[in-house]
Design goal:
74% helix
């Protein structure tokens, strides 16, 4: 009897363990499937699943989802990163933008990514990095052209990364530096082999120059206003102060 009981226990315990492990695996698989179906991360910063898939949000219409998913697929085929597109989609949703506006904005990001990639390839860089494409796209969004991206890439010696150069270019344009001037500054520096630190310093030097010009402009404006002010107005104020003094 004891032998029979022990045998039954020996048979049932592994079965129970298998059932438990199977249940856990099934739950994990369901969670993974759910995450892929939702297509959005918990933080909302991107629409990427753990397997690297990018998909339109569930809230999109069938036609809108098809357009966005096709854009993701096309970007992948073009060897450009899809994350910036997904970030733009998440940003648009957070701001309450319409589906049409979100898709259009993501399309502009895609176009700039592809243009940066193609410009770098034309300049002799066969395998632009995702980050270079992303930074270049940001610069293009600020008004930099594909031709200018290519020119900077051609001016850079060897296989030096252009991440910093493109980032500085975008930041200069964002600070109000004319695009042509910003491109000339960055291009001359990379052509001379300046370090990344020197490139970053361009942002601060331009900011300081702008601040200096603003202060000078304010001083000149104040001086001009004072010169234009009638002499009688100043005298009148002084006299009035004296008369009302206790």
């Amino acid at each position: 009897m004891k032998t029979t009981t022990a045998s039954l226990i020996a048979l049932l315990v592994p079965a129970a363990l298998c059932a438990q492990v199977g249940g856990q695996a099934g739950a994990q698989a369901n969670a993974s499937t759910s995450a892929r179906a939702n297509g959005a991360s918990v933080s909302g910063s991107a629409n990427a699943s753990a397997t690297g898939e990018f998909r339109a949000p569930e809230t999109f219409s069938a036609s809108g989802a098809a357009k966005l998913n096709a854009m993701y697929a096309d970007a992948e085929a073009h060897h450009v990163p899809r994350q910036p597109m997904a970030n733009r989609v998440a940003e648009g949703r957070a701001k309450g933008a319409t589906e049409v506006a979100i898709i259009a904005s993501a399309g502009r990001v895609k176009a700039n990514l592809e243009a940066t990639h193609d410009a770098m390839v034309a300049a002799g860089r066969d395998h632009p990095s995702d980050e270079e494409c992303e930074r270049g796209a940001s610069a293009m969004e600020r008004g930099v052209t594909k031709a200018q991206i290519e020119a900077i890439a051609r001016s850079t010696h060897g296989d030096r990364s252009l991440v910093v150069a493109f980032d500085v270019l975008a930041r200069l344009a964002a600070r109000g530096v004319p695009v042509g001037q910003a491109v000339a500054q960055v291009q001359s520096n990379v052509n001379a082999g300046a370090s990344d630190a020197s490139l970053v310093a361009l942002v601060n030097s331009n900011a300081n120059a702008a601040a200096g010009n603003g202060a000078a402009g304010a001083t000149a404006s104040g001086t001009a206003a004072a010169a234009a002010k009638p002499a009688g107005a100043t005298l009148g104020t002084t006299v009035s102060g004296v008369v009302h003094k206790p």
